[in-house]
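To: structure desk
From: M.T.
Subject: fold request, one chain
Message: Could you run this one when you get a chance? Sequence is below, nothing fancy, just the single chain.
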Amino acid sequence: MKILLVRLRQIGDVVFTTPVFAALRHHFPDAHLTYVVEPAAAPVVSGNPDLADVIVAPRGSGMRGLLADVALGRQLARQHFDVALDFHGGPRASLLTWLSRAPRRIGYAIPGRAWMYTEQVHRAKELRPRHSVENQWDLLTALGVPAPDRARYPVVMPVDEGSAASVRQRLADHDVPGDARLAVLHVSAGNPFRRWPVASFAEVAAALAGSSPNVRVIVTSGPSEAEAAARVITAAREQLGTDAKARVLQCGEFTLGELRALVETASVYIGGDSGPMHIAATSRVPMVSLYGPTLPARSEPWRDPILPAIPVEVDGLACRPCDQRVCEPGDFRCLGRIAPRQVIDAALRLIGRTG
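Reply: Done. Structure tokens follow.
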């Protein structure tokens, strides 16, 4: 059986499809799995041993982009897939699924695009307290695959040896001892609704670096928020004495593969609900996750429940969760009211467990 998997756009959403690979491999041992993904999230799936092929589809614009998609659709059709699963449901993903000409095309019952599928699955419009992995897994029910099990089918992203070597070298260049306890602090997010204040991140970084001579704090960010990461590092160092300043490291930008390798060496990962948080979830590292407009029930780390993960959130807000288009109160209180002390206490508990 040849199965086509389509999931475009966001890194975290691509991570949420990775439990599907092992499940399909278990239920269809001889299946040939092909995944279509856009460049930004391609590193998440490119090294997965359960995938036979990964097709990276750059996102074009205008007529040139449409013609490129039609050409890609013809390429998919020539591969004669038996089943195509569209985990995205957007206009581009549904078009590619339809152009694949797979006799079974399974997707969501979205008005205006449902006709492109031979089988439609209901997808609720409201923001439900149901995990995104389960929402995407609904497509597998048509294939007879039972409900997902976090312990058996966690999110996965293999560590690339080249990225691991790069991380080892970078840590050595910053004189990080082999027995150091690393705290990875990811300070950026995809939109302002998920962005915790720089001052709060800086307070956490300073507290962790000052907690023990053996702790090192590595501040990471996306490419567009390198300035924010630099501000966090500067502000954290200003709060520390001479000896402790050097424990807050400025290691530069990490690729997704390097971030995954870095987290593998850490004692704790701290960050908001974003793609890097879900990449961290593919490891066994203890995690502190900050939730603002989203709910842990929808996007908490999808992995074995025995692995430590502490969600930090503000309860009792009538505006939460939201669709992240307009902040009704206007002050992003869902994140702004998370106190640094909550995050510090949670992180220190987890560092102590791994120490």
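Reply (cont.): The first helix runs from residue 11 to 27. Let me know if you need anything else for the meeting.
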